[in-house]
Design brief:
Keywords: Hydrolase. It comes from Lysobacter niastensis. The chain has helices at 32-46, 59-71, 91-94, 114-117, 127-133, 166-172, 178-189, 236-248, 299-309; strands spanning 5-6, 14-20, 52-56, 79-83, 97-101, 104-111, 140-148, 154-156, 161-165, 193-197, 215-217, 222-226, 258-262, 268-270, 273-275, 283-285, 288-293, 314-319, 335-338. It starts with a strand and ends in a 5-residue tail after the last strand. Strand 2 (14-20), helix 1 and strand 3 (52-56) form a beta-alpha-beta unit. Helix content is 25%, strand content 27%. It is of the alpha/beta class. The chain has one domain (5-338): L-arginine/glycine Amidinotransferase, Chain A, CATH 3.75.10.10.
Length: 343
């Protein structure tokens, strides 16, 4: 009997979290000191629960990162470095999408186009192939797929239901119908239900409305989503429409999802540009949820909502305000690796 592949949910057991260290050759160059502090806090949070695998551009970057992390008193036994070239550090979109297949894994390597050609991504598009060839992953086969898809654009409950936004996939593939896209995603990702959202966006987001900034599964019967309760805010109508869409969705059993709206942070303006601060961009690890914190009064309320949605996990805030300068947050810079995929 052939092995049936399965796309695991983020809350299933993990072996590590994959990140790439920011350096002067990435888009972080102008604010490297600030963003390094976020990465140090992130690695400190990850290694409380599981290992971190850190991609570095070269030996010098590794030596520097090792020194910064060691000086922050992080347990370096939980840190592993892998050397590979990269354009930037958005591993959610350039890293592997891992399916469990029998006793091993199938790594889906979709094309990464820099979010529809907005940025150069020639090195990032080769990242999964290079890491796989270097032996980073155990017991795995890489499947190259000539189709643009980012990990931040898809969300699964691990039981065959996929959640995505039509805006993002249609922007990448305007010639493909919704029915065709549904069939393609269901086939590659081994899903039997694809739920589409037609509403929801964040100003300052250059991903064309990635689902991981808007709405996330919290088990097979619950969805956590970014709310907006300020009628004067430019996001209000769209996020209210998204909330109504989510309320109309049903689980596999035909029941409404349990919904957990996240609070709306105050606008963050940088050099006249509004930045996309979303609490939905959290990362689930073994025993915890790492929550993006923005130094906003709503941080505490967001933590309380996540504690209610994930009652069996610690909620650990990670300071992420420097990340939104480059239009992403905590989930965007990470990729979880299922248990057994790395040593």
């Amino acid at each position: 009997m052939p092995n049936v592949a399965r796309f695991p949910a983020e809350w299933e057991p993990q072996s590590a979290v994959l990140i790439a260290w920011p350096n002067a050759d990435t888009d972080w160059a102008d604010r490297l000191g600030e963003v390094e502090e976020t990465y140090i806090a992130l690695v400190a949070a990850i290694t409380r629960f599981q290992p971190a695998v850190i991609i570095v551009a070269d030996e010098d970057v590794e030596a520097y990162a090792r020194a910064r992390l060691s000086s922050a008193r992080i347990d370096m036994d939980g840190v592993r470095f892998v050397e590979a070239p990269y354009d930037d550090t958005w591993l959610r979109d350039s890293g592997p999408i891992s399916l469990r297949e029998g006793p091993g894994f199938r790594l889906l390597d979709f094309r990464f186009t820099g979010w529809g050609g907005k940025f150069d991504a020639s090195q990032d598009d080769l990242l999964v192939e290079r890491l796989h060839e270097a032996g980073t992953f155990l017991n795995s086969a890489r499947q190259s797929i000539d189709f643009a898809l980012e990990g931040g654009a898809i969300e699964t409950d691990g039981a065959g239901t996929l959640l995505s936004t039509w805006q993002c996939l249609h922007e990448r593939h305007p010639e493909v119908s919704r029915e065709e896209l549904t069939a393609k995603l269901a086939g590659w990702l081994q899903q039997d239900r694809v739920l589409w959202l037609d509403h929801g966006y964040l100003e300052g987001d250059d991903t064309d409305a990635h689902i991981d900034t808007l709405a996330r599964f919290a088990g097979s019967d619950a969805i956590v989503f970014q709310g907006c309760d300020d009628p004067t805010d430019s996001h209000y109508a769209e996020l209210q429409a998204m909330a109504n869409e989510l309320a109309a969705l049903t689980t596999r059993d035909g029941l409404p999802y349990r919904l957990f709206p996240l609070p709306w942070p105050q606008p963050v303006i940088d050099e006249g540009r509004r930045l996309a601060a979303s609490y939905a961009n959290f990362l689930i690890v073994n025993g915890a949820v790492l929550m993006p914190a923005y130094g906003d009064p709503a941080d505490a309320s967001a933590q309380a909502v996540l504690a209610e949605a994930f009652p069996d996990r610690q909620i650990v805030p990670v300071p992420c305000r420097p990340l939104i300068w480059q239009n992403g947050s905590l989930h965007c810079i990470t990729m979880q690796l299922p248990k057994g995929l790395v040593a």
